[in-house]
Amino acid sequence: QVQLVESGGGLVQAGDSLTLSCADSGRTLSSYAVAWFRQGPGKEREFVAAINRSRGSTRYADSVQGRFTISRDTAKSTVLLQMNNLKPEDTAVYYCAAGIGLRAFGPQVPSDFGSWGQGTQVTVSS
Predict the structure, then answer these.
(1) Among 70, 74, 92, residue whose Cα is nearest residue 19
(2) pLDDT exceeds 90 at position 33
(3) pLDDT score of 54
(4) In this structure, what DSSP letter does residue 111 have?
(5) 8 Å CB contact between 48 and 22
(6) C-alpha span between 124 and 126 (Å, rounded)
(7) pLDDT in tens, 50-65
(8) CA of 106: how far to CAs of 15, 41, 42, 75, in Å?
């Protein structure tokens, strides 16, 4: 459907910042709702942030609210995840996913998204 690729992960220290990018080969991400999920070692995949299509309303997990910002770069047809004040518990593989739309309330769930990238590793050291 849509081929997604994440980039921007890396190894940083606690308190540092990273910006992740999600891109699709067809340059059509503006037509989709996009979410970021993450999965730490031995943990279930959890919702991080999402942005809807059209007006681009956003959602955030409580654990990242105030630290992370999701946005669109419409010129490049990419979705960015700005991560500030990173903590060791943010260490995970981060995935972007595209779907039709977002749930109105609460966290987004992986099953709502039909297209996924391969993930990018974010490691935050103490």
Answers:
(1) 70
(2) yes
(3) 74
(4) G
(5) no
(6) 7
(7) 999 877 899 999 999 9
(8) 27, 24, 24, 30
